[in-house]
Amino acid sequence: MIESPKAHRPGRWQAFFSRRNAIAWAVLAIALLANLAVWQYLRSRENLAAERQFELLTSEVSGAIRKRMTDHEQILLGGAGLFDASQQVDRNEWRVYVERLNLAANYPGIQGVGFARILQPQAVAAFEADVRREGFPNFILRPAGARALYSSIQFLEPFSGRNLAAFGFDMLSETTRHTAIMAAARSGESRITGRVTLVQETHGKVQAGLLMYVPIYRSGRPLETPEQRLDALRGVVYSPYRMDDLMAGIIGEQARKLDFAIYDGDQPRSESLLFNTQEQQIDRRPLLSKQLQLALYGQNWTLSFSSRPAFEAGFHNDGILVLLGAGVSLLLFVLASLLTLRREQAEALAQRMTVQIRQSSEDLRKSEERQSLVLKGSNDGWWDIDLQAHSFVASARAWEMLGYPPDESAQDLSRWRQMVCAEDLGPLLENLHQAIESGAESFSSEAHMLQLNGNQLPVLLRGFILRDAMDQPQRLSGTMQDLSEAKRIERMKSEFVSTVSHELRTPLTSISGALGLINGGAMGEVPPLMGQMLQIAQQNSQRLSLLINDLLDMDKLAAGQLAFDLLVQPIKPLIEQALTANQAYAEQHDVSFQLDQPGVMWVRVDALRLQQVLSNYLSNASKFSPPGASVRIQTELRGSLVRVSVSDQGPGIPEEFQSRIFEKFAQADGSDRREQAGTGLGLAISKELIARMSGHVGFHSVPGQGATFWFELPLIEEHHLPSHIQSVTTGPRILVVEDDPSIIHLLEVMLGHAGYRVDSAVSESQALLRLADNEYAAITLDMRLSDGHGLSLIRDLRANPATQQLPILVISAYCGEGRKLLDSDDQGIAWLEKPIDEALLLNTLDQYIGTSSHTARAHTADHEALE
To answer: Residue 641 domain-assigned?
Structure first.
């Protein structure tokens, strides 16, 4: 009779406790004792290391606090030096000094830098009157009340936000501040206050505060004794600090490891608490704790430190080691028991492993068979490159695609390079290099391979990058897909779109023109109801015309037939022209433009093509922003690139659509009921145009929070500008007033080559703003402007004494009409008919600027003689 395996189970457990298994129990006992000894040793070492690390961290924090306060003292000493060097420091000088310090970036946690003047009672009224004359009519020293000596916060920068509440405050009126100021005055050294509540605590959480004072004395007064120094005291340079803000700029990464509190005084009392990393008391006993005394500028601080769980967890990880040691001991016991008692189990285990290996081999064979069938079904070839041996292997199908006989033997890697077309080899290797350097697991790239008969075969190469333990690439394996048919279909589609677009353009032009004549009244009065229908037809014909233009632009870009006139020019006028051109469209959607004024940045672009990109960005932002919203246009430097970004307040871009945003015909809402019309080609065209100008585009958007589209162009450094442009940065400054962007560009080039600096304005209102903010040697003026007539601007300039002698060059096709309407024999106005004669323009400008300079010099001389 055959026994069931279950009948043996009780015997197996009894065997573990039998004498035959004594060796295994001995192994377990020795292993557990060794584990205990190791644990005790590691525990003592970890405790010692924790204490040393804790000591180091507390020293670092206290040292960082001392250094930060020393740095802040240097700021105040610099301000005191400014007063010592100049007996009269005005508010603007103080603001410039503090701005150059760049407090927010270089000294985080500082609330401001100020100056408080010390006043005798009889000098208070005169002081208040002086401050009121500076432009503060309601200024008064506060708080009111009679005192033996007064002070007033006169300067405090930055002069905004919380700091406005401190203007005019008498710090001598409060005991703690009075004590610190008098100590600084008598000693001639820097002093800090005890804990105070700053007058800047006007809103939000109230933080503990303190102030640092540096005394300033009157020049030439004796300063040997405390009484002499107090008698010569002129004022104090000071800084207020909100302790939470100050410490946030000091503790940094140590906040994760330590809890610490700062107390004003020699004992840690709750009423003298200055700062605490624990917002609420936690009932936990730390592993390590310590108190330090820190003497700073006449005050003693008590620093109380305690370790945090994150710090302690970094040392006492021995629980895992104990469990691991116990597990290893049990494992050794089990292995010894198995070897001692049941050799047949090892044999059974070997048999099971043999079965598993056979099964794995069978699964591998089936997987390779399936992979082979998939490759045959897809009609793709496979390849494998060994980067260590510099060899490659390709499948029979891969060789067949290239017209070669099948050969799956290893080939030299140089042969693979020879089969890639020369113009595609560089970009292919660069793409592969970027994938390897970025740590990617795969890559994909299109290229042309040379067939045996000399023809080029377009292929898609996709591969996997196999790396070693050091993340170094070892092998590349992938597939090769024939793209001939896909490219043929793409060409057919492009040819079809191009042909249809050209064929539609002629009849559509006739339709749109005819509708325009009818709607304009050229054919007589149109009935109202019919007029509405004709207006709809005209609007849709214009939309169709825009679609066809976009299609033709894409066709030209794809064929490389779109011409570019690349010139080095400043980007600011181009942005301003785009804003003017799109202003009407923005007003149609009740949207305003907000331009962050850019600096002088030069780029090499085609002005008209860049205007096309900006118009696309601005129209999209206007279209998708809610009524009353503002569209922000910002220009900034990013290394060697100039980035222009357009930000809207619309619904943002759905995450599922973001990967296709710059594709042709891509639209987030592709239904026929979508709210906003469009072709889906504008962003794709913008991407290609910027790429042709050596730039690139991008965006970032959070759904529901608007979107920002940007493009970047290489910055042309000033020392790399052409010589005629470099001269523009130092020559006379001319204002061009013209509403036609092409004429503006032409005049900028003409005047720029002649060595003039050129600004532009597209309207009368914009010209007046330019003239109010800048000085110009002359202006050029068109008679017809978008918001008025040029004669109105001439009259305004002549009525203003500041521009009464300004030379004006009228460049217009209506010069005769302008002379009659002006009815004035103004010798400072030149009339130049369009088209523009460059030589006449430059000669006239040179003559008028010289005459103007001579007249101005004579006027100045006469004025000085009268004085």
So the answer is: yes
